[in-house]
What we know:
Order of helices and strands: EHEEHEHEHEHEHEEHEHEHH
Shape: elongated
Oligomer: single chain
Number of strands: 11
Radius of gyration: 21 Å
Strand content: 15-25%
Number of helices: 10
Structural class: alpha/beta
Strand order of the largest sheet: 8-7-6-9-10-11
Amino acid sequence: MKIFIFGTDSRYEFIMKFLESRSYEKTDIIEESDVIILPFKGISDEGVINDSNIKIDNEFIKKLKSDTVIFTGVKNNYLTKLFLGKVEYYEFMVSKEIITKNSIATMEGLISHIIKNRNKTIYNSRFLVLGYGECGSTIANTLSFLGGKTDVIDRNEYKLIRANMNGVKNVTTVLENEYDVIINTIPRKIITKSILNKLNKKTYLIDISSKPYGFDLNYANEIGIKSELLEKIPSNYAVKTSGEILGEYILKIMEG
Length: 256
């Protein structure tokens, strides 16, 4: 089978290497491709591919073979509507399998970053994780296992029961305790400017979510709170593994 890849995401190099070991081959001709991989986040709401003048529209679809399968990173409403009933189309980050596997790479990369950027051990440090989904739970559980005093905030009662079973305490507000590190996984403004003003200035804020993010990064830094936005942790810390996870997903879809 032949694969056409848009974009230069570092993960895609390892997707290709993984699939080449399974007898797939890369092509530069869209019309002969069996699989097309679109940029992970590089398509506008109007369907224009990032850093190009190529538009994904009905004319683009007409060039494809009838059984071409298209993959992209995250949900895009324009593509979902365009491809409906016309092209077999998959989004990597709605796959439970990929999200779960990526949460491990995210956790490892995040913990590595925390260790390198602090002068204290995880053991006996106080952590707060905002969100106890796939990613948040993996992070919180691991920090707790390593001896971190770990709290979590989540609105889902079932998730909080799971957290408690894993030794993670649930709290209702960011200000309930003084934390060494607060990690946000929720793409929603959780920590307002008012809350930021009340935080201990020694708190280290890390946001690993997507837009609109969990707090105002610039404002936090302006008032003296060390704050960072860490995006694409799997591709930055475990790019080979991340690419192979995506490659395994493509293989599963294509070959059942």
